[in-house]
Write a structure and sequence with these properties.
The chain has about 150 residues and is mostly helical. It has one domain (about 20-145). It is built from seven helices and no strands. The longest helix has 28 residues, at about 20-50.
Length: about 150
């Protein structure tokens, strides 16, 4: 069966769900803002207990990673992501989710071939290209500071 471009476009339009831009942006804004506000609350709590700026910031990162990993393992993070969309991709929580979710999905295949091999399916390219880009940018910066 051969279809024309116009027919394909019509079929794709019919099969594609309608986008609700205002609702999606509001959800992303609210959920992303809530995650950032939660992080700021943790920062203030850690400062209140006497930690300095650097230690407080490190503990906030650890806490947000742990919470997002726990919520992913409990299958709650995906429900939050349905409402918040891109707002749940706040770097540290989204990255933790992108590592834990495949690990949970492939745990039935065992620790090595399941969790170990599939854990970085989503996050792996980010790590590889992020590391390569930082090395490249560092070399460029180093080169220009020499001359």
């Amino acid at each position: 069966m051969t279809i024309t471009k116009a027919e394909y476009k019509q079929m794709a339009k019919k099969a594609s769900p309608n986008s609700h831009y205002a609702r999606d942006m509001a959800g992303a804004f609210l959920i992303g803002g809530a995650i950032c506000t939660l992080g700021q609350c943790f920062l203030e709590i850690y400062r209140f207990f006497g930690l300095d700026e650097q230690a407080s910031s490190a503990f906030v990162s650890i806490t947000l990673i742990g919470l997002s990993a726990l919520l992913t393992a409990l299958r709650v993070y995906d429900n939050i992501a349905k409402i918040g969309g891109a707002g749940t991709l706040v770097p540290i929580t989204g990255f933790a989710n992108s590592i834990v979710a495949p690990a949970m999905e492939f745990k039935s295949e065992g620790y090595i071939l399941g969790i170990g091999a599939k854990m970085f399916v989503i996050a792996g390219p980010v790590l590889v290209y992020g590391t390569a880009a930082s090395i490249l940018y560092g070399l460029i910066l180093w080169f220009f500071h020499l001359y």
